[in-house]
Amino acid sequence: MALTLSEADIAKVLKYERLIPAMEKALLAFSAGRVIQPVRNMLTIEEGKRFLGIMPAVAEDGMGAKLVCFFPKNAGTKVPTHQAMIMLFEPETGAPLAFLDGRLITEMRTAAVSAAVTKYLAPEGSKILTLLGSGVQAHAHLQALRHICDFEEVRVWSRTMDHARRFAEMHNAKAMDLETAVRGADVLVTATNALEPFLKGEWLKQGAHVNAVGSPRPAWRELDDTAMHNTLVVDSREAVLKESGDVILSKAVIFAEAGELFAGSKILDRSATTIFKSVGIAVEDIATARLVYDAIEGGFA
Prior knowledge:
This protein is an alpha/beta fold and about 300 residues long. It has two domains: about 5-105 and about 280-300, ornithine cyclodeaminase, domain 1 (2-Layer Sandwich), CATH 3.30.1780; about 115-275, Rossmann fold. It has eleven helices and 14 strands. It has helices at about 5-15, 15-30, 105-120, 135-145, 160-170, 180, 225-230, 235-245, 245-250, 260-265, 280-300; strands at about 5, 40-45, 50-60, 65-70, 80-90, 95-100, 130, 155, 175, 185-190, 210, 230-235, 255, 275. The strands form two sheets. It has an eight-stranded parallel beta sheet with strand order 9-8-7-10-11-14-12-13. α2 packs across α3 and α2 (about 15-30) packs across α11.
């Protein structure tokens, strides 16, 4: 019988210490061509408010699909903007293994991918982290990135400053205005549903690294053209050229996929100012689901 795993079940075993290297392994396999995966099929229910994503993938360790509801209209309510279910199968036999709640998996694997890339691209001795956005992904990235860098200062900005102040109080951070939060930061995260670019490239210090994980629609943007024309790394070339307004509208040149960095086939000097544009791909969800399944089956709580 296939397991049915709730968010509470998943939270007991899913830890960044295991998840970050698992995401590195999954994206390395993806960029090496060892994963069968179409670009996400995103069904628009109500433009700007309600979307349903269909995300299948077949990898060496697992196969399956995620159905994800992306409902920006839920922002500010008790209902998450992202809710999902994942079905995991055994790739050798096709046997169903588990149905997993996908909300926490989506949250944590997104931040874990950013952390894996940051390990390769952040300036040496990074001390200042800036979070642009104060929601679920800001919290997840703060937790994940602390496994990679020893930050001395955490800054936060939000379009609603009360939200930024509340986040700052909860996480020993500093709420700041946008430009002040960006200038001098070593590592930055943009995690919003902005429609127009708000992060100006002229504010970024030389060598800064930006994890841009928000605004996952072809006409939505977080970063201006100046920011996007720094050295650009993506999770999937095919996916960002279909889904990311930051990449499509800026016509930015993609230097590498994350998996190519992990494999060593593309190497960057840490003095470069870098942008990692992540839209999230199915192999990350399947790899995370398999990690959770194996942990529970193996009794690793």
